[in-house]
Structure formats: C-alpha cells, structure tokens
C-alpha cells in the first residue's frame, strides 16, 4: 500500500465477521512511518486503548469526541491541532456521526476536512442484515470516497478489495488477502480465488467490476463465458470489415439521396437533427409577454 496514493476521503468498510479497527490502525502506522501527521477523532474508542506505538508518537494526536454537539465544535478542536496537507485525519466510526448529525451533514464535514488535510480515513462497520436505509447511506458515502477498502473474512483468510477512483474518472480495483501483526504492520499478498470462485459473491463482484485480482492481471474479460471477438483471425477480421453498416451511408450526401427528407433539397451531411415543418404547425411570431412591464 502506497500511503501517498491515498487522497481526500478513504472509507474502510468492514462487514460481518471482521473488525476494521486494526486495519485502520495499520494504515495509520504506515502514515506515521511516511512522516505524515495523524489526528484521530474518537467517537467509539478511548484514547487509553490505543497502541502505545501510536500514543507515544509525537506526530500522532487523539481527540475523544464523545460529547461533541456539533461539527463546528469538532472543527475548532481540529484547528488547534494545525491540520495541514501533510496530515491524515482518522474517524473511528462513521455510523455514529451519521446517526448523530445526519448523512448530509456528515458528508459535508468529510469534504470540508478533506480540503484541509492530505486524507480523511473513515471506518464504517456494516452488517449485511441492516435495512435498506443503512445500505443507501453506505452507497452515498462510497460515492464521495476516492478510495474504498472493503474487508471481509472468508474461511481462514481476511480479504480486502481496494477500489480507487483516478483523477481521469476511471477506477482501479485490486483484490488481495492481508495479515496484521501485533505491532500493526500490515502485509498484502495475492489470493488464489480460482478454486471456488463461483461460490464467493465478494470475489465475483470484484471480477465483474473490471478489477484486478491476485497478481494484478485483468480477469474480467477472460472469465466471460462467451467470445467478445477480441481475438479474431486475419480472415475473420477481413470478413468483419466487409460487413455493410447502413447507418454510415447517412453520413454522406450520396447516402441521403434515398431518404425522403433529402428529395429535391440540399441537406448538410453529418450528425444533425433534421426537421421538416408540418403544414399543421402553428408558428406565432408575436411575443406572448409583450404586454408585461418591467
């Protein structure tokens, strides 16, 4: 994981059976090792329960925000910590914020903090049995996040699907397994999904979304049960080139000869909307508002 590739809003999504808090602490550890300042906003955990390696780091600050009544109060506390573009802000429970302040206000708060810092890392623990409203809340948070780490336990493995939105509008997706040591060092490695891939919707969703799996090779095309025609022989390519495409003829003046709208008329060719007035059309040249005074 390249910590400097994380930008704006990053969400850690932990599903049933896995705790996303250690993963978040591992990301924080990487940020500190990369010389970033880290400010942790605690709404669910206590500062005293944080690992000593974090608490004793001079670049790490933890603010317990249990009694905060407004985002303005939280912003004022952050202002005292001199948050800048070389800072990572961690929120240990996004659902608590949404429940207390509403989703629109929480989204606004995240975007505001993201403008001040290098990255906002927010932890979301979701249950698959939650109602549609909670799932809709997550989809809206996911839509404003530039990076999403989706964590899930499967057999004896802990899996992570990382989806990163690029600046050019495209998305990059990776599917890996990870392990976290006692000192919160995190290691990623390829995951062999081929043996029972069909039984795992989590993996299937990653593949169908066009992601990369394991060693980073794109697999969504090779996994399709039909041929897209990307590997044609020379003879097949020539045959395909000879297939007439009627709609292309309408892009030329010669091709318009057979159309009724071009009969005895000069018509410009190309992608245009051509309208021939009907005799029943009523064109009123007068101004319907000419009796209004300003």
From TrEMBL:
The keyword Lipid metabolism does not apply. This is Elongator complex protein 5. GO terms for biological process: tRNA processing. PANTHER family: ELONGATOR COMPLEX PROTEIN 5. It comes from the Eukaryota. Belongs to the ELP5 family. It comes from Heterodera trifolii. The keyword Nucleus applies. It is found in: Cytoplasm; Nucleus. Keywords: Cytoplasm, Nucleus, tRNA processing. InterPro entries: Elp5, P-loop_NTPase. The lineage of its organism: Eukaryota, Metazoa, Ecdysozoa, Nematoda, Chromadorea. Pathway: tRNA modification; 5-methoxycarbonylmethyl-2-thiouridine-tRNA biosynthesis. One of its GO terms (cellular component) is nucleus.
């Amino acid at each position: 994981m390249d910590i400097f590739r994380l930008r704006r809003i990053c969400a850690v999504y932990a599903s049933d059976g896995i705790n996303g808090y250690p993963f978040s602490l591992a990301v924080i550890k990487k940020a500190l090792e990369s010389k970033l300042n880290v400010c942790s906003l605690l709404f669910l955990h206590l500062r005293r329960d944080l690992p000593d390696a974090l608490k004793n780091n001079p670049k790490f600050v933890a603010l317990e925000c249990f009694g905060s009544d407004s985002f303005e109060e939280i912003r004022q506390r952050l202002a005292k910590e001199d948050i800048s573009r070389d800072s990572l802000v961690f929120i240990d429970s996004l659902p608590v914020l949404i429940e207390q302040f509403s989703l629109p206000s929480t989204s606004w708060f995240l975007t505001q903090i993201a403008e001040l810092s290098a990255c906002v890392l927010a932890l979301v623990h979701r249950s698959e049995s939650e109602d549609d409203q909670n799932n809709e809340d997550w989809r809206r948070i996911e839509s404003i996040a530039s990076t999403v780490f989706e964590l899930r336990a499967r057999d004896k493995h802990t899996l992570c699907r990382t989806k990163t939105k690029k600046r050019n509008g495209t998305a990059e997706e990776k599917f890996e397994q990870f392990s976290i040591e006692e000192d919160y060092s995190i290691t990623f490695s390829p995951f062999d999904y081929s043996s029972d891939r069909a039984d795992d919707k989590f993996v299937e969703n990653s593949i169908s979304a066009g992601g990369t799996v394991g060693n980073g090779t794109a697999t969504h095309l090779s996994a399709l049960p039909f041929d897209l025609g990307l590997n044609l022989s020379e003879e097949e390519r020539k045959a395909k080139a000879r297939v007439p495409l009627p709609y292309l003829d309408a892009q030329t003046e010669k091709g318009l000869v057979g159309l009724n709208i071009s009969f005895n008329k000069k018509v410009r060719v190309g992608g245009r909307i051509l309208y021939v007035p009907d005799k029943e059309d009523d064109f009123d040249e007068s101004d319907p508002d000419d009796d209004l005074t300003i």
